[in-house]
Amino acid sequence: MNATNGLSITWLGHATVLYRSPSGKTVLVDPWMEGNPASPPDAKKLAAVDLMLITHGHSDHFNDALTIAKRLHPEIVCNFEISLYLGTKGVTQKLHGINTGGSITVDGIRVTMVPAFHSSSIQDGDEVLPAGDPCGFVIRFEDGQTVYHAGDTGFFGDMKWIGELYRPSVAVLPIGDLYTMGPREAAVAAKLIGAKRVIPIHHSTFPGLTGTPDAFRKELADQREIEVVELKPGETAGAELARR
Ligand code: NI
Ligand code: MN
Predict the structure, then answer these.
(1) Looking at residue 241, what is its pLDDT?
(2) Which CATH architecture has domain 3-241?
(3) Nearest ligand atom owner, CA of 32
């Protein structure tokens, strides 16, 4: 499945995505395994995470962040407020609280925090804490291949400029509707971004998420340059992501 020395991308259900870089580093975005109905059983047994990225504080993106931080000690890139929160919980090492527009290079992987139109909060017991602005990430791997991981977001026209600036070859977009873009919005987003491969996420987890990969593909039917790479939870895209 992973017979490539290039980038591979595994969907761990809902919004949780595991990237394996060309040099073999693992980058985990938005960890939610415990209680995630779409999480494959193996996801809970991750043995190594080199870098963890967090787009916002909602539990479907953040639920397992503390557990992973304490068990696997990855470097962490998140917004400043979430880094403060993790600090209060005893995570202090390798914690990079950055902010929108900024970039940081960790182990040869360049991470840029880009805007997302959504909200962000952390539910901590019976308290709901503000958790800064939500974000997406542009991830440039060691060989230059670049992914735009949009995070939870509504459609916005500046996705065009994210595409122009960073030239991602892959875009990972939410399509489930209700909390994020649905298929129609995500299809227009894909056209603006200009990535040749698009991986839909944040769909099918709950009945309320009505956007489907089929509907997304239909919306993109007239776009021969854009390929929808549909994964099931637990599946990996590898060779099909090779640049052309
Ligand atoms: Ni959210
Ligand atoms: Mn979400």
Answers:
(1) 87
(2) 4-Layer Sandwich (3.60)
(3) 2
* CA quadruple 45, 22, 101, 244: dihedral, nearest 10: -120
How confident is the model over 131-158, as a mean pLDDT? Answer: 98
Distance 109 CA to ligand 2 centre (A): 25
Domain ranges of the chain: 3-241
- State the CB neighbour count (10 A cutoff) for residue 109: 22
The rounded distance, in Å, linking the Cα atoms of 73 and 67 is 10
CA angle 46, 49, 53 (to 5 degrees): 115
Average pLDDT over residues 106-135: 98
Ligand 2 centroid to Cα of residue 218, in Å, is: 23
State which residues have CB under 5 angstroms from ligand 1, the bound ion. 58, 152
pLDDT bucket at 2, cuts 50 / 70 / 90: very low
Ligand 2 centroid, distance to 5 Cα (angstroms): 31
pLDDT score recorded for residue 3: 42
For residue 4, the CA-to-ligand 2 centroid distance in Å is 30
Tell me if 216 sits within 8 A of 200, measured CB to CB.
yes
Mean pLDDT within 162-168: 98
- The phi-psi region of residue 177 (left if phi > 0; otherwise alpha if psi is between -120 and 50; otherwise beta) is left
222: DSSP letter:
T
